Amino acid sequence: MEFLSWEPDVEKEVPSTVKSDVEIEKYTVDENLNDVDRAILYLNGGIAIQQKHAVLNLSQTLKGRGRPAFDQLSQALKNFLNKADAEIQVLAADSFMAIAENQILTPNDISICLLPIVIRNINKERSEEETEAWLKALFKIVPSLGRDKIRSEIVPLALSKGDVEGNLGSRVICARILGELVSLLSWEDSDRLFVRKVLNMCQDVDYRVRVSMCEQIPRFAVVAGPEISSSRILPELLELLQDEEVEAREAAITSLTHVLPYLSQEVKQTQVLAAFRHLMRPLELDIRIQRRVAALFGQIVNQLLDSFEPEDPALFFTCFKHLAVKADGDLRRAAAGQFASVLVAATTYHQRHGVGGGGGGANLITSILGVNGGISNAGGGGGGGGGGGSNS
């Protein structure tokens, strides 16, 4: 019966696992090669894992060998990076950071060997991840450069990125580099070279550039001092507080809070308090602004305490109590993180003014302690501890 007959399958050929002579030669590396020559070999024609190894171990390869070793492998490294993918670019930037951080090359050698490669890669159109990696490498390298080098190479790099006709990413890079440079130069140098550009970028047509530049402003206040911060920096922040985009207003609140230590008490009383009083009426504010105010509340109130008018303590601390018991879980968590700092401010006010001190200091402490039950449940999501309040 034919249907019961059986013939064995034709024996299938099993792929050979034995490497050919060509493959063996490709994977074989002369054991007598030193680390530098091996890295050059990998970069020039190795397989992917070998090339990745060469980039990952760049700092170790140069350790103890310094500039002569870098000069040997620099051309192979540059050629390889010109065609390397995003993963390798990030690894290379990390290796450059390690070289600078561990002082494997001298500051002068860093400026000659590493800086041109970093600048070249920042100037190329790359992914956000790659650009971020090379910017971090630049920020690690720049402090080791002298002021002359910063003025002659890094400032022009930043300003070239800040052309208003340039793309968004380029202008954001400009803002970040300028923020990094201001603490490395004298205020006179910064003012002469790029402060006008900084202030103009606070009013850029794209809100993301305004946000990026605004985030750098506190660094300028540290160097500029109270008088210049009050006359030139503060007006930009106050204007950004009125920005049409919520993200820009959030950035302005954060930056203004961080600038407060560098403003005089008179300026706080005459210019700043009015802006923060407006923020103490949360029902009028976007929920994102409420969260930002809550997250900074302790810093705000402790910095402004000495400038308070008699009616301010009740306004500020009542606002905090309101924020701390809202239904929005993120808002309550932000308030919870500031509770101790706000309590310190209320206690300080009470010690200075007592019961008769313009609003009843003891009552303020009682009021702040009264919200503890609401914010103690802040980690429990949007429904606990705050009752059924509105998100607005």
UniProtKB/TrEMBL annotation:
Repeat recorded as keyword: yes
Record's keyword annotation contains Transmembrane helix: no
Protein name: Condensin complex subunit 1 C-terminal domain-containing protein
Keywords: Repeat
HEAT repeat start and end residues: 233-271
Xref: SUPFAM superfamilies: ARM repeat
Transmembrane segments: none
PROSITE patterns, A to Z: HEAT_REPEAT
